[in-house]
Amino acid sequence: MFSYMKATKFDTDAALDERRIIVRYGEEGVEMVELPWGLRPKEPGNQPFMLARAEGRRFASHRCLVPASEFLIGHHDQRHRISLADGDWFYFAGIWRPASEGWPEAYAILTIEANADVARYRDRQMAVLRRRQRMDWLDFSCPEHELLQPLPIGAFRIERAIPRQAQTVLVL
Questions:
Q1: What is the pLDDT of residues 122-161, one digit of tens each?
Q2: Is residue 116 part of a domain?
């Protein structure tokens, strides 16, 4: 299954309910499914959420992986493209919930303290797992607090991205 995985860029400014392929355990083992981004709040009247703080929490079920080649973040009216310095793709640690009345089956991504590379732009970041850690997350073989840690300094390559309004579309 994992050999057929395609990792793409992940835009943190994506809309609530943007659909993306995630990896999780299903009834027949590991599966890839397309789900919308954003979970229904547990308390009525609260806003849906796409990111969930990981510290101090246990994720005893409904874990998922979100494959990505890079992620985009905004900082002071600028966008930055962040990828692994070694060029490899990775996963974000996530959680998913089954559909409930008026809300589809969906997922959210966990956040952790930013690593030293990302901390210049934000104090938190989405939890990045290297590909070798994917099954540790899915099959609970490693405790959350060991997996959900910032990567070491120098793990990321950060480049300024072209602002959306400055991108030109060529029509032929």
A1: 999 999 999 999 999 999 999 999 999 999 999 999 999 8
A2: yes
Residues 36, 15, 66, 83, Cα dihedral to 10°: 170
Residues whose CB is less than 8 angstroms from the CB of residue 117 and which lie 6 or more positions away in sequence, other chains included: 82, 153, 154, 155, 156, 158
What is the distance between the alpha carbons of residues 44 and 94, in angstroms, rounded to a whole number?
Answer: 23
Residue 69, in any domain of the structure: yes
Q: Is residue 43 part of a domain?
A: yes
Is pLDDT of 3 > 70?
A: no
pTM of the model: 0.88
Domain that holds residue 156: 2-166
DSSP 141: -
Token pair of 124 as six digits: 């938190």
Q: What is the CATH number of the domain that holds 156?
A: 3.90.1680.10
The number of distinct structural domains making up the chain is: 1
The helix or strand, by DSSP H or E, that contains position 134, with its residue range, turns out to be helix 134-138
Q: Tally the C-alpha atoms within 13 A of residue 110's C-alpha that lie toward its C-beta.
A: 27
Radius of gyration in angstroms for the set of CA atoms belonging to the chain, rounded to a whole number: 16
In this structure, is residue 171 part of a structural domain?
A: no
